[in-house]
Design a protein that fits this description.
The chain is of the alpha/beta class and 656 residues long. It has 23 helices and 30 strands. It is elongated and about 110 Å long. The two termini are 61 Å apart.
Length: 656
C-alpha cells in the first residue's frame, strides 16, 4: 500500500483527503492545531497528527516514515510553512508535491496590494470602518498603527489563541467577530452592514476560502475590497482536482466513489437556504435540478442538468464524468421529497442528505403558529382522505397539486360540514409575489389561487367522535335492510383485529354498519363493501356519505363473482353469503393465504358449514353471543333476548 503525507490545514487539503482516502493508500495528515484536527474529521486509512513541526522535527518524521509522496496543502499565504516543508523534503530526499488553490481574482474585484505592509499604508489614506477577514496572525501589524486601530473590526477563528492575539493587539472586545466559515455572500453583506465598514480586507484565497462571496458582498454593501496578493515565488502547483488526479495515476488508486448531496434548497429565496446547502453547491462539480432551482443558485464553472424525475437524475449521475454532485430539491428533503427515492437508488455511492426549510415550517412561521400539533400530508399526486384528517386533528397542512387544488379541497370540506373552520391558503411561498389569505373554508371556497399553493385548516373541535368500535345502532341510517347490531358488531370487530392500513372486504355489507366501523378503524387502508341488493346498496352509500368516508369503495354484485377484481385483502368480514360461503372463502385464501376472516352465523345451517370449514385452518375460534336488551313494559323494565349469533374467526389454512 502506498504511503502519503499530506500537510492539510486548509479546505483544499480536506477535499484532497476526502477524495483519495479509502482507495488503497495509507495517509498521514499533519495539521498545526487541534482545530485543524477536528475540522478534518474521521476518515478510513487516515492518521491525523496535530501540532506544529519545526524543520528538525519534520525531517525526523519524514526519515522515519519513508513516505512515497509528501503533499503540501497548506494555505497559499503560509510562506514559512511551505518553505519548511520544501526544505525538509529536500534534506531527506522525499518527493514533494504542492497543492495550490486556483487564483480566480479579477481586475474589477477591488484594490490590489502586494503584501500586508502595503495594505496598511493604503488603509491609512482612507477613512471609515474596516472589516479585516485576514485572520489573527497579521492582526498585530494592523493594530500597531494607533490611528488605524479604532477603525478596525476583525473576523477571526473562535479559538482561545486567536482571541488572545486580539487582546494583546489592543483590539476592543466589541470589535471582534469570532466565527468559523464558510461565509455566504448574504452573511458577509450582513457583517459589512452591521459594522458599517467602508473597506473589506481579504486575501486572494480562492473559492475554497470564500473569496468570491466576499467580493460580491463588498459590492452589494457599497464597500471597497482591498485584496492582499499571494506571496511571490509560491505560485507553482496544481489545484485539488489536478493533484488528486496525479496521485490517482501514480499510485493506481481504486476508482473514486461519486459524492452526491441531496439538498433541500428551501422555499426558493436566499433567506431559506442553509449554510450546508451553500457549501454543497459551492463544492459540487455538477448541479442537477428543476430549471427554476438551477436559476436560483450560482452555476458558474459547473456542469448543469435540468432534471426532475428520479430515473433521469440517477442516469445523469451515473453517466457523468463529474465526481461531486448537488441535487437541488425544493423545500425540505424529509417532507414529501424526491430524496427518498434517490437515497435507495444511489445506495452504492457516497450520498449525504441535507435538510432545508420546508413549506410546513415556513408557512406556520408566516401564520405565527407552532407546527408540532399540525398533521402534515400531501395531495400532490397522492390519495388522501383530507376530510377525515381535518375531523381528527387540531390542524391539517397539505401540499396541493393537480386536480386537488385549493378550491376542490375547500369545497369538499364545506360539503362535509366543515365550512365554518378557519383555513389559510399560502401561494408561491418564498417568492416575491407570495400571498397568504385567511378565512373560513366557505368564504375561501370560490377564490382564485395559484397552482403553487398550500393549505392549512384549523379545527378546534377535532377528535369529538368516539374512538372505540361498537357505535350505537341509532348512529346509522336504517330501513328494513339487515344490520349487524352494536354488540355483535363490537365483538366481531375485536376478533377481526384490524390494522391501520388494512385492506378489508365486507362481504354482504347490508346497510354498512360494519363497513363504516372498519373504515374508521383502518383509517390508512381501504374497505371494499360488497352488496347485491339495490335497496341495501342505496342505504350503504348514504351511510358512507354520512360518516364522510373517503376510504370506502362500494362494490355492487354477488359474491364471489364481484370479489374477483378486488385487490388482495388483509381482513375479511362475512355478514352474508347467499349460499356461496365455500367459494367466497376459497377466493379469499387464493388472494391472500394469511387473510384473517370473521364470519357471523345466525342460522344453524350456516353455523354447521362454518364449523366444518374451521377444521381446515391453523387458527380457529368460535364465540356464541347472546345479547339481551331492556324494554319498557308498563311500569316494569324487562330484558328481551335477541337471537344468538355465532362469531367464527379463522386464519391460515392448514397444508394439505
Amino acid at each position: 500500500m502506498s504511503k502519503l503525507c499530506v500537510f492539510a490545514g486548509t479546505a483544499d487539503g480536506r477535499r484532497l483527503i476526502e477524495r483519495i482516502c479509502g482507495r488503497g493508500a495509507s495517509i498521514v495528515a499533519c495539521v498545526a492545531t487541534e482545530y485543524g484536527e477536528v475540522s478534518l474529521g474521521v476518515h478510513p486509512e487516515v492518521e491525523v497528527r496535530a501540532g506544529r513541526l519545526d524543520r528538525a522535527a519534520m525531517e525526523e518524521m519524514l526519515r522515519a516514515e519513508k513516505f512515497d509522496l509528501v503533499v503540501d496543502a497548506t494555505h497559499p499565504y503560509a510562506e514559512a510553512a511551505t518553505g519548511t516543508i520544501r526544505a525538509a523534503c529536500a534534506a531527506v530526499g522525499a518527493e514533494y508535491l504542492r497543492l495550490l488553490r486556483e487564483n480566480d481574482a479579477g481586475d474589477g474585484d477591488g484594490v490590489f496590494v502586494p503584501d500586508t505592509d502595503e495594505c496598511i499604508e493604503y488603509l491609512k489614506t482612507t477613512s471609515g470602518p474596516i472589516l479585516l477577514t485576514t485572520g489573527s496572525k497579521t492582526l498585530p501589524r494592523f493594530c500597531g498603527d494607533a490611528a488605524l486601530r479604532p477603525r478596525l473590526w476583525a473576523r477571526v477563528l473562535p479559538l482561545p489563541s486567536s482571541l488572545e492575539i486580539c487582546e494583546k493587539s489592543g483590539l476592543a472586545a466589541d470589535r471582534i467577530i469570532a466565527m468559523q466559515g464558510p461565509f455566504t455572500r448574504e452573511l458577509n453583506t450582513a457583517m459589512l452592514r452591521f459594522t458599517g465598514a467602508r473597506l473589506l480586507v481579504t486575501k486572494e484565497t480562492g473559492s475554497a476560502g470564500g473569496y468570491r462571496e466576499k467580493i460580491a458582498a463588498a459590492k452589494e454593501a457599497g464597500a471597497t475590497a482591498v485584496i492582499i496578493g499571494r506571496p511571490s515565488g509560491n505560485e507553482s502547483g496544481g489545484g485539488v482536482e489536478e493533484t488528486a488526479a496525479e496521485i490517482e495515476r501514480r499510485f493506481s488508486l481504486k476508482p473514486p466513489p461519486k459524492k452526491v448531496s441531496l439538498i433541500g434548497i428551501g422555499m426558493g429565496n436566499a433567506e431559506t437556504r442553509t449554510l450546508g446547502m451553500e457549501r454543497a453547491v459551492r463544492e459540487a462539480d455538477c448541479l442537477i435540478g428543476a430549471r427554476r432551482m438551477l436559476d436560483s443558485v450560482s452555476c458558474a464553472g459547473k456542469e448543469t442538468h435540468s432534471a426532475i424525475l428520479a430515473d433521469d437524475i440517477e442516469q445523469t449521475i451515473r453517466d457523468s464524468d463529474c465526481r461531486r454532485f448537488a441535487v437541488l430539491l425544493s423545500g425540505d428533503t424529509g417532507f414529501y421529497s424526491g430524496a427518498k427515492a434517490l437515497v435507495s437508488r444511489l445506495s452504492d455511492l457516497d450520498v449525504e442528505v441535507l435538510p432545508g426549510i420546508g413549506s410546513l415550517s415556513y408557512f406556520c412561521s408566516r401564520l405565527q403558529m407552532p407546527w408540532e400539533n399540525v398533521r402534515a400530508v400531501s395531495m400532490h399526486g397522492r390519495d388522501c382522505d383530507i376530510v377525515r384528517l381535518v375531523g381528527e386533528n387540531p390542524a391539517v397542512f397539505t401540499l396541493l397539486g393537480g386536480k386537488d387544488n385549493a378550491n376542490t379541497v375547500l369545497r369538499a370540506l364545506c360539503e362535509a360540514g366543515f365550512g365554518s373552520l378557519t383555513a389559510h391558503v399560502g401561494q408561491r411561498l418564498g417568492y416575491p409575489d407570495e400571498r397568504v389569505v385567511t378565512g373560513t373554508a366557505e368564504e375561501l371556497m370560490d377564490g382564485v389561487y395559484d397552482p403553487l399553493s398550500v393549505l392549512l385548516v384549523e379545527n378546534p373541535d377535532h377528535g369529538s367522535a368516539p374512538v372505540t368500535h361498537g357505535l350505537p345502532d341509532e348512529a346509522f341510517l336504517r330501513d328494513e335492510v339487515p344490520m349487524t347490531k352494536s354488540e355483535v358488531r363490537s365483538v366481531s370487530l375485536s376478533k377481526l383485529m384490524l390494522t391501520k392500513n388494512a385492506v378489508v372486504w365486507d362481504v354482504g355489507a347490508g346497510s354498512g354498519s360494519v363497513t363504516v366501523e372498519c373504515a374508521l378503524l383502518a383509517s390508512g387502508g381501504r374497505v371494499y363493501a360488497v352488496e347485491m341488493k339495490e335497496k341495501a346498496l342505496a342505504l350503504l352509500e348514504k351511510n358512507v356519505e354520512k360518516f364522510r368516508l373517503r376510504n370506502v369503495t362500494v362494490v355492487p354484485g354477488a359474491a364471489p363473482e364481484a370479489l374477483e377484481p378486488l385487490p388482495a385483502p388483509t381482513h375479511a368480514f362475512i355478514g352474508g353469503s347467499s349460499g356461496s360461503l365455500r367459494p367466497i372463502i376459497d377466493l379469499l385464501l387464493r388472494k391472500n393465504p394469511e387473510v384473517r376472516i370473521v364470519a357471523n352465523a345466525v342460522t344453524l345451517e350456516t353455523a354447521a358449514e362454518l364449523t366444518s370449514i374451521l377444521k381446515e385452518f391453523t387458527f380457529s375460534e368460535v364465540t356464541e353471543l347472546n345479547v339481551s336488551r331492556a324494554r319498557r313494559l308498563g311500569r316494569y323494565d324487562l330484558m328481551t333476548a335477541q337471537n344468538p349469533v355465532y362469531i367464527y374467526t379463522f386464519q391460515g389454512r392448514k397444508p394439505e
